[in-house]
User: Fold these one by one.
Assistant:
Number 1:
Amino acid sequence: MKKFSHVTFVVKDLARTMKLYESLLGLVPGSKGFVTEFPTVKIGILPFEKVRIEFLQPTTDADDIFNQFLRKNGDGIFSYCFMIDNYDAEIQKLKDQGIELLEAKQDWLFPGYPFRLAWIPPEAGLGIRVELAEYDALPPSEQQWGDKALSS
């Protein structure tokens, strides 16, 4: 099972970008979105109807995947994400097809709910990075978001 979760933009100025998107989408500023700060990034979320938009701003000069993206591309769409169950089987199936993945475990995003994810790089032929997140390990609020996005 795969459930669409969100689109992620990597940006240089999170506050400015969120204001622009709130205006573009006709949202009351600050009424639906929220920002969370972590040691190396700030993440802003704007839920819009059945789509969630995630904005990520690096807050250090680390040579990580997000800063590399900004240096190469500037602000832009970094990835789109699907929640998947049977994570091990799904990831193995992709590996068996010869698709190289960048795998990670995130324990900082949802404290108490470490989850695995894998990115399929744009070079694999999909044109953009695709994130696959371990549905069963996500907190109930994230699982409910995915369930809601597919309903009605």
Number 2:
Amino acid sequence: MKKIAYFELESGISGDMLLGSLIDLGGDVKVLDDVIKELELKDVHIEVEDRNGGVKGKNVRIRSKDQPHRKVSDIIEMIKESGLDEEVKERSIEAFEMLGEVEADIHDESFEDLELHETGMVDSIIDIVGSIALFFDLEIEKAYSSTVSLGEGYTECEHGRLPVPVPATERLLKDWEVDLGSKEGELVTPSGAVLLRVLTEQEEVPDMKLKKIGVGFGSREMETPNALRIFLGLQTNLEESVRVIRFYVDDMSPEILGYAMDKIREKALDAYMVPSSGKKGRQGWEVNIIVEKSDLKKVIDIVFDETSTLGLRIEKTRRVVADRETESVQTDWGEVKMKVAFDENRASPEYESCRKIAEKKDVPLKKVYEKAKEEYEKEK
């Protein structure tokens, strides 16, 4: 079953609240130590304490002597050069690119020269990269968020007294469902907003078998608990919302189109081509791509960069997947991952797992497939 999470945002979200809730879910604080080490951040100390504000949870404080403002380009370079997991690096870079683009537009500066203030300090860097690292360490496969409570009034920052939500938060949450004016104060910080964007989406939440609730407290005192709750569980229904991208090409060589399809499949759930005829009897291909909403923009960018199409169609639909889990079998050439469906105990070797072994050991791919199936049948 897929491990999923639901963010309840009645009290908004900030980076430290998300750190607290992920640690309360069982995230290892050592993950944050690794982030600090990999990003070469000096004189930093993480404090985690238990809190009880009507509900029990964690409060995270980041202590540091070093609080310089950093250029967004320098932060991104720090992340690229680190030894963090590739998925953590990718999402972290995406987060700071979003922040940089928004702040550059607000202050009419170039992205390369932009210096981040609050979100460029050590604590905010750890809030963002640390939250992403903990999220993936918990092996959460998909996350959803509720309507976001933004708060009201004014807040003080380095740019002076600003209305809530501050401009960066407002732009980051454009097109999201928000609740305005329900509580006094800044409930969503720019770091909290960008983490919502890169980790969650506002879609209908699938039914789940609840396993645990994590609670992370913010630093501000409020009449109601200033806490972010994350519900963690296993998806129990077999339907999920996806997007289907379709377009037609008749002027690309098979080699270049094949390369484009490989790039698309790296980000999509599935992609395939169907022979078709277009205008004036020209023979070509209809390309169909199934993608999660969170990866839609990335796939669209690849389509326009790598193919000749000038337009495409997008449809919202739902797909049904077999209830399954991943197991591993040992072959003569190494370990192969298997996708195992629960209903009839059907199993299929994972392509990428087999491909890596075939390339590394110089073995025909079909032999790796056959051997993996054979070993699975023996163990069954």
Number 3:
Amino acid sequence: MKLLKWLSVTDRFYKIYLDKQLAPFGINSSQYMFLIKICRSPGILQDSLIDMFYVHPSNIVRTIAALEKQGMLTRSPNDKDKRTCKLYPTDRALSVISEVQAVCEKTEALLLQDITESDQELFMNLLMQAGRNITSELHIERKGEEFND
């Protein structure tokens, strides 16, 4: 049960750390992934975020609504399917995204400090395999993308 304990501890405290680092940009640890993806892929369909981040659709709707309210993105109807919308970053989002990415890189570096490069690669491969194992057991499939982001 050491693995479960330390996954929980790491998850809890990296989120606290990220929340503090991201606060000046008006976002938090549950929003940064979405903002980065939308800035990298303007016009991305909201529904495609479900498969990318393994998040319940209601969480995506809530996060997208919060980012829109904060002036970080806009929604546009999808002409091909009226049930979903396209997401676009605002100028505000584009003005802070490089700093948000820098915060994320700094956080990753902190988490991996004092771990050799080869051990970091091994750790990432093992962590991804653990993710594949649990999602497979729960019969959660990912459409369209490999499990390697």
Number 4:
Amino acid sequence: MGQNVHFVQCGESFGCRQDSVWLAYSSLNGAAFLVSEKEKEFLRKECESGSGDSPELSPGARALLRDPVPQSVMRIPESWEDVYEVDFLMNYKCNFHCVYCYSAAGRSNAVLPWEKARTLVDFLFSEDHAAKTFYNIHFSGGGEPTLSFDLVRMLTEYIEKKAAVSGHKYKLSMVTNGSLLSSEIMDYLIAHNIELILSFEILEQYQNAERGQYDVVAKNLDRLIESDVRFAVRATLTADSAPAMPRMIEEIHTRFPGLKAVVFDTVLSAELFRTPEELKKYYDVFFDSFLEAEKLGEKYHVSVSGPFTNLLAFHRERTCFGKIVLTPEGRLSICARVSSPKEELFPCFTYGEITEDGRISVDREKFDRLMHENTIESAPECRDCFARWNCGGGCRLFTMSFPDESRRVFCDFQRKCVKYQVLEHIRQHFLKANGKPLEEHLKSLNLE
């Protein structure tokens, strides 16, 4: 039958007996429809013995077995020279003490040396680098980049200068806690078209408990809303704050009415979830709370997105794009969340450095190995999973930070999210075509 054809129980999603309704799903060619238990068995046998162009097959089997349709595929860089996601970590300094901080172990006063940052820019915008299509360049941490904003300025203007000569296209962004956004910084972001990602927990009790300085950041958010700065707000939810997502949307509607979009993200911290059961409870609460917040967002015209919003947008061979991350010490990491030698997993994610004499030294064999780990082909649990091309195999940092039992919890969460997204598409299509909810139709079939 092949790895791309799957049948997934989904009766409970429609208030029916679990095995009375099945999702027939082939993600690579876009086939997704509902069948009964009897129809599922018939299709399974057809798919095991036929091919997509066999005229004797049923329309359903032909749909499941047809060739993949063109769709956006997350491009994995073929080599170190082909990477197009780039992070400059400005420093190891921060004026916050977030409870879920992934880089707290590396705190120091170290700042990225200009000479090493310039060396990387020279390489990126030279003929030696193959990624000629588009760069996503991020200024982040590490630490808080606005504490080193003079360096952000120098890098921005140097990138502009180099790109004007080389013809490379790029987009700049900066991740910040929002506490140090002066008028001067905001004006600079506007003038140089730098998008801002503001990490903010929206509700005062969670911002102050988990990050700090609510009043300062809230006032700066007000100023951002009134300005021409391109920005997005991202809230990282812990087990304490995840249930409050609907209240956060209410708060946006009343306190920040000019804010029209928010991203809710799951937290990645093994220290916050001591057992797989705690992690499962967190994911369950996050999922339910997110859906409630999403509905409120529709009501108030606030776009709500999260970790599973775009799971169907394109196919993934792996979850992570793969990056060039230049750390404040001049090392090259594949993940922006692993940036300091003080972190236990640092040796597992770094693959090179910029030397004191200005050379870029890369362990290409290690880079290639890192890029081909945690893919849907390398992870045994992915091979027969219906969500494999939507999920991409999961985050390498998660895999190395959590025990195997927690990885299984994560996989269950991903499957739950993918199934929900697929079924939502089917629901919307049915409602548009038939003028009544799909649940109402299934209920009339007495499938309970």
